[in-house]
Amino acid sequence: MRRFSTLLIAATLLGTSAAAIAATPDNSKNEAKLAAALAGRVAGKPVNCISLSTIRSSQIIDHTAIIYESGSQLYVNRPRIGADSLDSDDILVSKTYGSELCSLDTINLVDRASHFSHGFVGLGEFVPYTKPAKH
After folding, report:
1. What is the pLDDT of residues 66-97, one digit of tens each?
2. Which of 91, 101, 26, 113 lies closest to 63, judged by CA?
3. In the beta sheet, which residues pair with residue 3?
4. Lower CB density within 10 Å: C or N end of the chain?
5. Are the C-beta atoms of residues 61 and 30 closer than 8 Å to each other?
6. Closest CA to 84 of 103, 65, 112, 105
7. What would the pLDDT profile of 8-17 be if each residue is shown by its tens digit?
8. Which residues, in sequence order, are CB contacts of 132 under 8 Å at separation 6+?
9. Residues of the signal sequence (predicted)?
10. Which regions of 52-111 does DSSP assign to beta strands (E)?
């Protein structure tokens, strides 16, 4: 009986693991979009905050990241929480308490068509990407 219980538990765990793997969405298309947006740029050391006054635009890569354009640099933020909710049709609404957007800030996601809030993301570190100097 003990052996049967052990086999039953093992089968349950194996089934759960297989279901989790099957439920993991293939994000390779979105990763490819991110790679294309960063083509020809080199990653720098991650920073915790970026200045709001220098951000010219932002772009959402579905279920993956937010790209902030700041001068000649692009900052990529892969949210710690809620990245799977990111949709390129969303409007990003940030509530900041200073002059910087930081890795502990949250961004509300608002549907562009209905104007209803449908979630939020908790930002991670900002990775700067710059074009290498020409020789």
Report:
1. 999 999 999 999 999 999 999 999 999 998 88
2. 26
3. none
4. C
5. yes
6. 65
7. 444 444 444 4
8. 40, 41, 42
9. 1-22
10. 55-61, 65-70, 73-77, 90-94, 100-102, 106-111
